[in-house]
Amino acid sequence: MYSSFKINTSLMALLSTALLTYLTTTTNLLFAGAKVFMVLMEEEPTLSLTTKEKYHRSDKDSIVYKKKISSSHTTFLESVLQKGSYTKLYSYTHLLNGFAVHVTSEEVLSILQNATGVRSIHEDVKIEKLTTHSPDFLGIPAGVWPRLGGAESSGEGVVIGFIDTGINPYHPSFMGHSSLGFLNSTKFKGKCISGEKFPSTACNRKIVGAQYFAHAAIANGDFNATRDIASPYDADGHGRQVMPIQ
């Protein structure tokens, strides 16, 4: 079962999954024109390894707390920056407490760097897609599938999350004609966002959730409407190639 997250040549969606170790600490940011940055705040996110609150917070309380964090980002930006000098793109509340912001000048960036409550700032950067490799390269057929009941049932009931160029629900690997049962919806908290070439029926027994994140690419002028699609659909092909091998 797959939960797909589509990005448009942007690292910002990767950061939303707390893969912060991929980045180096940014202390001296060079500015040339409007850019997108991720600002991490000092306050704890909804889930934190440094507080015991995560063991006691109910789902309802978590929703309230996430809304509180998102609102605090808006309030913070309005309190330190002039209107029109920035655009808030995303709030990160689950594993990270931070937000993505599109700023227009080095002065705005400097204000954020020196503002109370800011832990670190990272510039959004483009990343190069690498070619996919076969399951044999990963040792899956010989080393993994036999130990997990064979290729037909290995990983049954497990949700695998992907961050890539999207997913093609019409590919045979993702068709819902499977013997697998439906996912227990009381545990999985993902969403299925429909859009161009990705109807609501695209989510099935194989694709249990799909979202896309394009605000940073659009803000930076990198979103090409003749090539890119504002939906979880994979117009590039990289995501479609990588996901089936898992």
Mean pLDDT: 76
Unreliable residue runs: 8-29, 178-182
Q: Can you tell me the overall shape? A: globular
Helix content: 10-25%
- The percentage of residues in β strands lies in 15-25%
Question: How would you characterize the overall build of this protein?
Answer:
The protein has helices at residues 12-15, 59-80, 106-113, 135-138, 140-143, 215-219, 238-242; strands at 2-7, 35-41, 86-92, 98-103, 118-123, 160-164, 207-213. It has 246 residues and is an alpha/beta fold. The chain has a four-stranded antiparallel sheet with strand order 3-4-2-5. The longest helix has 22 residues, at 59-80. The chain is globular. The protein starts with a strand and ends with a helix.
Compact description:
The chain is of the alpha/beta class and 246 residues long.
Q: What's the layout of helices and strands?
A:
Elements: E1 2-7, H1 12-15, E2 35-41, H2 59-80, E3 86-92, E4 98-103, H3 106-113, E5 118-123, H4 135-138, H5 140-143, E6 160-164, E7 207-213, H6 215-219, H7 238-242
Parallel strand pairs: 1-6, 1-7
Antiparallel strand pairs: 2-4, 2-5, 3-4
Provide key terms for this protein.
three-stranded parallel beta sheet; four-stranded antiparallel beta sheet; alpha/beta; 7 strands; 7 helices; 246 residues
